Amino acid sequence: MRFFLAVLMLIGAATCSAAAEPDGYPQTIDLDGQTSRQVVVDREAGQYLGHPTTCLLEDGKTILCVYPRGHGRGAIVYKRSTDGGLTWSERLPTPDSWATSQEVPTLHRVIGPDGTKRIIMWSGLYPARLAVSEDDGAHWSELKPVGDWGGIVVMGFVEALSTGKGHYLAMFHDDGRFFTKNGKRESTFKLFKTFSTDGGLTWSYPEVVFESAEVNLCEPGCIRSPDGKTMAVLLRENARRKNSHVIFSHDEGQSWSEPREVPLALTGDRHTGKYGPDGRLFISFRCISPTSKRKDRPFEGDWVGWVGTWDDIVNGGNGQYAVRLKDNTKGYDTTYPGVELLPDDTFVVTTYGHWDQGESPYILSVRFKLDELDSLAEAAQANEGGAKSVLNPVRYQGTESISQGKHLVFIASDHEYRGEETLPALARILAKHHGFDCTVLFGLDENGEIKAGASNIPGLEALRSADGMIMFTRFQALPDEQMKYIDEYLNRGGPVMGLRTSTHGFRYGKQPSKYSKYDFQSKVAGYERGFGHQVLGQTWVGHYGRNHQQSTRITVVPEQAEHPILKGVSKIHVMAGGYNAEPQDDWTILTMAQPLLSMEADGLVDASKPPMASEWTRTYTSASGKQGRVFTSLYGASEDILNDGYRRMLINATYWMLGLEDKITANLPIDFVGPYQPNTFRNGGYAHGVKPAAYLGFESPIPANHQTSAKKQDR
Questions:
Q1: SS3 category, 6
Q2: Eight-state DSSP code of residue 355
Q3: E strand or H helix that includes residue 646
Q4: How many CB atoms are located within 10 Å of the residue 199 CB?
Q5: pLDDT, the chain, mean
Q6: d(CA 305, CA 298)
Q7: Phi then psi for 232, rounded to 5 degrees?
Q8: pLDDT digits (tens, 9 = 90+) for 430-455
Q9: Which residues of 31-63 are buried (b: 16+ CB within 10 A; e: fewer)?
């Protein structure tokens, strides 16, 4: 199948400014531009595809999706994902009657009184019809009428009841046109309920729950209280006079409270939600306001979500976040969502919309975790003057292939060697070709722009879920509230890869910090010479060849030729000048570096500088006594990774440090992902005016521009 991106990044989201939000509105987060979070489920040139619903099976990774080939009606299209929505099948065969569907199909998991698992699919208008699968969607029945009645969006939800095994409640609405065979539109909207006691095969004759001509309540979406004792049903208000409404039942749907309005932040159409791992709710819906309130509401007409709590729904709270998932470019024609939560706490939210100006709508998923939204919010609040602009980190999320779902965090902030170009390029390779979940963090200035060497790296809390840390830092004096995450990571013995200047990655000098022991000149007892020596195996020693005059040839130590990191590695020539090394007894030296007398790969060797150790492995022991694998390279500049042999070594080393050396082969893919044309490294020579968001997705160029301000300094 075809989809935009097989893997996903994070987060360079920009939130709306407070001035654009109504009073009391929750903090806004905009994920619209995060194309690497998005997966195209289906798209057909010139064909309207819309109104999907999804169903996640119990294996936690198989998702079924149905939607009509047309606006709210048309032949039902059916697809399946077996990897949690990262990829999708071609369109699957369907029974003949599915081509006769008159309305939006909806999927629901139900279980019969005898334990039989079923998936039922509704198709509305008159008569409401049902298709059934008892083998997790492999085979389906034809659509068959459920009774002598029908309705609109049958069914908005199907909710299991505690009144007995196989008992379910469903709700829908009608405006008089479709409840009976020859119905006519009425001014009054009616909200109906119907019950099943046989696991969704048969349904009772619908009863009216509420009817009104003043407020047109429709498209019900159900949320249970955390204790399971109360149901809340959120309702679209179709007259567009008031906000959306909510009703409550404390007796399993037998009786319902009078409807009341919800806050504007939760107002819209087709609410679909689930609880996250920490008990907060995420609810997806179309952002559409009462006519009188549309002008100043953020994300009007777009696909949005709301993060809040059950108590917010009960007490009329505004919630925590209002999230734009995707900008809809045509009116309000978007968002009948499916919302699924994977075992790893990833929300997979799927809907349709006019995502590209002037083109037909198509089906798209967006993926995120609630803690990612928290990181965005925290970073936004920390910005100067309260400006809500979140630009760190960037994330490229991979599939659970040979990478086994591992999460890598890349930390880029050196002054000279363009680590801010090297690391996102490596992260893209490891995400797209190898399936790693890669988070890239940059040093930022006060404007949220990448500043090479800046001692401000928001987003380091990503290390709490990291399986590996890849560093390209120099002379960092991070504030304690950021450095604590690196300290926590090292104390649990997390694997580390350190490139080039990371040997002198921290310098606090006289600046007070509880983490000053990491200074490359540390004299703290038991942590002498700081992070470089204690973790990577060496602190700063000195140059061994001049940058921009002498390049370096790297060769494999013969005794280590069979080491997993060196599989398929040959002909390494890098552009950075040499660094001195002081080998220690606990090193396993993999390679030796020979300075050359020119910048050419076939240049003459500098006979005054015999080969020097350049890459090695070791194990460090943390303060907690836990141990972690380490790979150290004295190279890694932006131009160095243009060399295939060197780049392959880094990819192999990533596998090795995570204990995945049995997955390394001599031909693991190492091709760059997207344009990579690095700047020539030098102090001050980084691409100015670039925000991390410029590196979202896999096709944005690295670097984002070449407007450098060169300062010919060297160290």
A1: coil
A2: -
A3: helix 644-657
A4: 22
A5: 91
A6: 12
A7: -115, 135
A8: 999 999 989 999 999 988 889 999 99
A9: bbbbbbbbbbbbbeeeebbbbbbbbbbeeebbb
Instruction: Choose among 552, 563, 652: nearest CA to 611.
Output: 552
For residue 297, how many other CB atoms are within 10 A of its CB?
Answer: 22
User: Tokens 């990503």 label which residue?
Assistant: 462
Query: Exposure string (b/e) for 413-429, b if CB count within 10 Å is 16 or more?
Result: bbbbbbbbbbbbbbbbb
DSSP letter, residue 343: T
CA distance 664 to 649: 11
Residue 646 · residue 554 · CB < 8 Å: yes
The two beta strands, 552-556 and 588-595, are antiparallel
95 SS3 class: coil
Half-sphere exposure of 186 (CA within 13 A, CB side): 18
Q: Which tokens hold the place of 24?
A: 């009391």
Beta bridge pairs of residue 196: 168
Closest by Cα among 705, 641, 645 to 673 = 641
Comparing CA positions, the residue from 30, 81, 32 lying closest to residue 52 is 81
Q: What percent of the chain has pLDDT over 90?
A: 83
pTM for this entry: 0.59
- Tokens representing 536 are 């990577």
Torsion of CA 438, 442, 448, 452, to 10 degrees: -150
Looking at residue 320, the DSSP 8-state letter turns out to be: S
Give me 326's structure tokens.
Answer: 């995707």
- Determine the Cα–Cα distance for residues 457 and 473; give it in Å rounded to an integer: 11
DSSP structure string for 588-619: EEEEEEEEBSSSSTTPPB-TTS--EEEEEEEE
Per the structure block, which two tokens stand in for 712?
A: 């010919």
Joined tokens for residue 325? 């998932």
The residue to which tokens 């470019």 are assigned: 329
